[in-house]
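User: My instructor asked us to take a sequence, write out its structure as tokens, and then describe one feature of it. I'm not sure where to start. Here is the sequence I was given:
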Amino acid sequence: MSFTLYPAIDVRDGRVVRLRQGDYDQETRYPGEPAEVAARYAKAGAQWLHLVDLDAARAGGYTLAPLLAAIKSTTPLRVQTGGGVRGEADVEAILAAGADRVVVGSLSVREPELVIGWLQRFGAERITVALDARQDESGQWQLPTAGWTQASGVALDGLLKRYADSGLQHLLCTDIARDGMLAGPNLDLYRSLIEIAPQVAVQASGGVRDSRDVVDARDAGCSGAVLGKALLEGRIDLAALCAESAAC
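Assistant: Let's start with the prediction itself. The structure tokens for your sequence are:
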């Protein structure tokens, strides 16, 4: 099975940032313009980029179309991107700006029938469903929305089955408790998702610390891994990882 590395750039107020467990009040800013960071990742050998509009994720209205167009015109990167997708017009606009895949988060939880329709209209290869999960006291994985600030009452396993039965190809799943924490990816979670929907390519997101975590995610059956804080802080040598694992 092929395995893909997705260097991540989260953008807020035009800056490259990371949030701690999705908390907008716990932000770390990193040097470099987003386009410059993307170019650096491309030079290191990355083939894909995961680009997130954090402003839109909370307020709606994707704002990174100019940045996306710039990245696509100056690098060979393929880009999956999202944040603030609220309707079909947003998907159309993001694809028109050059996205290879549109990431749909909260709406995938709130209006699954709408998103299932997009899988059919735009093609399942063009949509990444992001189901970001938090484990409740009973051990069930729940899916908060609106930048992880609102409870939805929707369980991860049931919704994944619904999407898998409707032709979903790409799932990005973040264990919110591990996001930005450098605690290692939740391999048990990903193994359970792959067991539920073996035909879906699962991207591990949240907690990756080093190259060993990337290998572990691949060995657990994931199709790829999103690299955020560890990459920005120099804990992962992207060029070496690409060369060694052929994962880019």
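For the description part of your assignment, you could build on this observation: The first helix runs from residue 34 to 44. Try explaining in your own words what that tells you about the chain.
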